[in-house]
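Notes from the pairing session

We agreed to fold both candidates in a single pass and log them together. This is the raw record for the first candidate, unedited. Please don't reformat it; downstream parsing expects exactly this layout.

Candidate A
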Amino acid sequence: MLNRRSLIVTAALSALAGALAIAQSPSPGGPAPKGLVIDTGSFTPLVENMDRSLAFYKEILGMEVPPLPAAGGPRPYNNPNPRLFAFFNIAGARERHQPARVPGIRTVVEAMEIQQVPHKTVALRLQDPGKATLVLMVRDIDATLARVKAAKYPVVTTGGQPVSLGDGTRAVIVRDADNRFIELRQPPEIPANAPAHNIIDIRVMLTVADLPRTIQVYRDVFGFTVERESPFRAEPVEAVLTGVKSIEERHARAKARDSQMWLEFVEFRGVERTPLTMKIQDRGAARLQARTENIDAVVNAAKQAGLTIATVGGAATPIPPNFKGALVVDPNNFFLSLFEPCDGCAPPDRSR
C-alpha cells in the first residue's frame, strides 16, 4: 500500500513513468537534440475538495477512484515536499491529488486540491480562452445524462438534451461537482477494440485565444502532431450544444508522439471573450501532464517562444524520486507539467 509520501509523486507520475525508455544521449560532438513532448498522462482539474470531485467521477461517471480511509474521514493530504512545491510554485501549501480511472484507457483524470496558499475561484465560460473541458466518449449518452440530471447537476446544452453533430455523433455539455464543463459524446459507432466501460475514450478540449498561435506552440515547441485545422464558420448546432449564441468557430486537434489522447482546440469569434488569468492553485485552472525527451531543450524552446515557466527559477527542477520537471504556461493560460526521468538527479528523501 502506498504511504502518504509515496503518493506525492507516484500518483502524479505513475500513468507515464516507466512506460517509455529514457531518451538516449546525443553522440559526442553532434548537434544538441531538439526536445519534444513524447507522451501525455493525467489531465488535472484544480478543485476545491478532492473527495467531492472523486465522488462525482465515481457515482455519476462510473470511474474507478481510490477508496476512502477504512477508519473514516477524508482522504489524507500529502506530506510537504519542498521540491514538488517549487515545481508548482506553491511554497507552504497543503496538497493532495488522486486519480479517477477507466480500465483500458491510459489517460486518467486527476483531481488536485491545493490549500493554504492564496487562490481564487474562476467563473468559467465556454468561450473564454484558457477554459479546459473534459471530453468523455461514451457508449450510452442518454443513461449517462440521466444520472447527471438525477443528481441535479446543471445541463448547459440548450434544451437539456443531446444534439446530433454532422458526423452522427450525439453530444451534450454538463457541469460537474466543481461547476466545470464536461462534454459527453456518443459516437455513431463504437470501435470493436473500445474498453468495456461506458466511457470508451477521454479527451480534453481547450478554448484558445488565437488558433494559429496555439498550433505553432504545440507543433513547433512541444512537437505535437496537429491535424484537422478548420477556418472560421458558423456552427448552428454548436451554438445549441454550448449555449453560446451568434458564434463562429474554428478548430484543430493535436497529439503527442506516443500519446493516446487528443487535445482539441476551439476558438470562438463573434462573442465577448475574456482570457482567463490563473495560477495553478486557482479553482478553474487545469494542467496536462506531459512526458518529454530532453526537457531542458523543451523548456528553452518554450522561453524563446515567449511562454512563462511557472516553476521557481524558470527552469526544470529535480523532483524525487529521480525526475526533472517544469510547469509551463501555454498561450491560453493552460498548464503543462513537463517531466522526464533522470539518473540520480533527485534521489528519494529518506529522512521524511
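Candidate B (folded immediately after A)
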Amino acid sequence: MRLARTHIFGVAGDTLVTVALAGSLFFSVDPTAARGNVALYLALTIAPFAIVAPLIGPAIDRAAGGRRLMMVVAATVRGLVALLMVRHLDSLWLYPEAFAVLVSGKAYHVAKSAIVPTLVQRETELVEANSKLVLLGGIAGALAFPPGVGLRFLHDGMPLVLASAAFLVSGLAAWRLPSTSVAVKPADDLERAELRSASVLLAASAMALLRAIVGFLTFLIVFWLRSEDAPIAWFGVVGIAAVAGNLSGAVSAPLLRRVVREELLLGGVMVLTAVVAFASAAGPSRLSAAGLALTVGASTSLGKLSFDAIVQRDAPDANQGRSFAKFETRFQLAWVVAALIPVLFFEVLPIWLGFLILACASSAGSFFFLGGLRAVARGVVTPAAGRKHRS
C-alpha cells in the first residue's frame, strides 16, 4: 500500500507537469528550433542508464534502503524542479528542467522495478502487484488531468505547484517503505545462467523493442503535430489514448494469462502492433495516430507483465529485484535511443514513413521472437540453462 501511494502521487505529478507544458515554450517554439534542444537532452538522458546505472546499481542494491533512497531522491528532484519550472515556462531553462524531471522519473521506475519483489509476500504475487500498480497509476493520471487543466486557467504555472506537492507526498510515502537490501550477494553462476536462457533473452529482446517503439512513437507524434500546428487538444487526445491502452492492458493481463501462455501473449501484442501500424501508415491521420498510441500502450502493458512472469518462471533462482532493475535500465535506454531518431530526422521523416518503420520493426521483432520460440520448442535452443535449482 505504501508503494501504491508512492506510485499514485508520482504519476499524478508527472501528469500535472505534462499539462503545464502544454502551451508553454515546449509547444510554442518552432519545431526546427526545438529539435536541437530536445536531441541534446535526450542524448544526455542516455548517460545515467548506459554509464552510471551499471556502475552504482550493484552498490545501491547491497545497501539497506538503497533503492528506497533512490525513489525518495527522484521524487524530491522532481518536486524541486517542478517549482523552478514555474518561473521558466517561457525561458530556455525549461528544456533542461523538463528533462531533469524525465531522467529522475525514469530513475524512479528502475528503483520501483527493483523494490516490488521485496514487498510481495510470495513471488507468485509479483505480476499481480505490477498489474495493480499500472492500473492505479493510470487512474491517478486520469484524476489529476482535469484539475491540472482547470488550474491553468488561473495561472500557467499552477499545475506545476500542485505537481510539486504531489511529488513531495510521493517522496514521503517512499520514505516509509521498508529499508531492505535488494541483493546482498553478487550474482552467482546459476543466476547468470538462468537470466541468459533462451526464453528470458527472447522475452527481454521483445520487451526492449516494445519500449523502443514507445519512445519512437512519442516524439514522432509530438513533432508531427507541432509541424502541423495542431491544436493542443490533439496532444491530449493522443496522451489519453496511450493511458487508456495501458489501463486496458493492466486490466486484461490477468485474464489473458489464464488462457494464453506468456510467450504467445508477448508475441501476439507485437503482431497486433505491426498490424495497426501498417494500417496507420496506409491512412495516416490524427485519429490513426491516437489509435496506434492506444494499441502501443496496451501492447507495452501486456508485454511487460508477460515478461515479468517469464523471468519469474524461468529464472527462479535469480534475485528478482536485482534482475528487474537491470532489465528496466536496458528498457529505459532503448526508449531514449529510439526517441532520438524522430527528433533528429523529423524533417525528412513523414508521418506515414514513421508509422511504416514501426510496422516493419514490430513485424521483424515478432518474426524473430516467434521463430525463437519455435526453435526452443523443437530443442534447437535450450529453453533455460540452470534448470537445476537450489534446494
